[in-house]
Specification:
alpha+beta; Glutaredoxin; Immunoglobulin-like; four-stranded mixed β-sheet; about 375 residues; five-stranded mixed β-sheet
């Protein structure tokens, strides 16, 4: 009788374990070189939940829940480095490698991780060189290295060369694996340039309809379309805003004039030199020919008002206190400050993400002015 009871308990335990396996996934890790033993794990399925895992000599075990195939990000060294893998309930995964080279960490478990790891193995020398070059450039910047400009230029050139080779290899990978989500991940990690996101359009067209159902495809496609809508030759996107004088302004408000649309913020150091240049442009052309509109992304309006006063900014200004969550940021595909567009008299974009010097050159040509 007692034997039957123990068999019953064993069966119950096996059923529970089986259910756990189907309704969760298990991740084991062994990460060398960690200075901080704590890891922060964020699931794409529930981005607002962050799990903290404490490693023991770099080793850890984590059980999570993901009904569908989703990305999982492991942040290391207080969030300064990270690794992404793809997980789903009912699977077991492992992560091994050196925290100094997160891009080279090996992931086992699942077809997507397998393909991505194979790419890392095949291109490990290039990826390591890319990491080392980035670290050298970062160290120069942080330490304000007084080395020659040519030395930094050489490192930058080497990095661009390595990145281009990896980009070519990634394109070959995408063409060979269009029916797996790993193709989208390669586009995101090795091909996507946030300033020229429209370039990924041909590659997005290669993936199969099944892959296009993944949310990553929607994310990449949206970025691509936004970029294409703000290229030279496209109609400028309409808006309706309240300026600092509480007047409602639209794109139509500037019809018949060239419009310099600028994005800035009080804390933007690279924006400051441009204010004097914009003043010079303003003086060079009449108010009937040219208008300037600055969109400030300051959440604290007083911060921008102070900057505007100090720099004598007297043209149209809008202070968007939603900051980087601004609809204008999304509409005009803004990823860094300063960001400048030049729109012609008919509302067509004739300059996208320009430096102010280039704006002056284009205006001189369009309005037949001499420097």
């Amino acid at each position: 009788m007692r034997t039957t009871y123990y068999i019953f308990l064993l069966l119950i335990a096996l059923i529970i374990i089986s259910c756990e396996d189907k309704n969760s996934y298990v991740l084991n890790g062994n990460i060398k070189g960690l200075k901080n033993p704590e890891l922060y794990i964020v699931s794409n399925a529930d981005m607002h939940v962050v799990d903290t895992v404490r490693t023991q000599s770099g080793k850890f075990t984590y059980r999570g829940v993901s009904p569908n195939l989703e990305s999982l990000v492991i942040y290391m060294e207080n969030g300064n480095s990270w690794i992404t893998l793809w997980v789903q309930n009912g699977e077991k995964y492992s992560v091994t490698g050196d925290s100094n080279y997160p891009e080279l960490m090996m992931i086992k478990g699942g077809e997507v991780n397998k393909l991505l790891t194979e790419f890392k193995v095949d291109n490990s020398a290039l990826i390591k060189e890319q990491c080392d070059l980035r670290d050298k450039l970062k160290a120069r910047s942080e330490n304000h290295a007084e080395s020659s400009v040519s030395g930094e230029a050489q490192l930058t050139s080497q990095l661009k060369n390595v990145e281009q080779i990896l980009k070519t290899h990634a394109q070959d990978f995408i063409e060979a694996n269009p029916s797996t989500i790993s193709a989208l991940i390669m586009i995101q990690d090795y091909i996507l340039d946030v300033e020229n996101a429209g370039e990924i359009f041909p590659l997005l067209n290669l993936v199969t309809d099944k892959v296009k159902e993944n949310t990553l495809y929607e994310h990449l496609n949206t970025r691509c379309l936004r970029d294409m809508k703000t290229k030279v030759g496209q109609p400028a996107l309409d808006f309706k805003l309240k300026n600092t004088q509480n007047d409602t302004i639209k794109l139509e408000s500037f019809k018949g004039k060239y419009l310099i649309l600028t994005f800035a913020a009080s804390q933007c150091e690279f924006c400051k030199p441009e204010y004097d240049e914009l003043h010079a442009i303003q003086k060079a052309f009449s108010a009937k020919e040219l208008a300037i509109l600055t969109i400030s992304l300051d959440e604290n309006k007083e911060n921008w008002k102070k900057v505007a006063q100090e720099n004598g900014i007297n043209w149209n200004q809008v202070i968007d206190s939603t900051g980087w969550a601004s609809e204008m940021v999304t509409l005009y595909n803004v990823f860094e400050l300063p960001c400048n567009y030049l729109i012609d008299k008919n509302g067509i974009i004739i300059g996208s993400k320009l430096h102010v010097d280039n704006i002056q050159t284009i205006l001189n040509e369009k309005l037949k002015r001499k420097n």
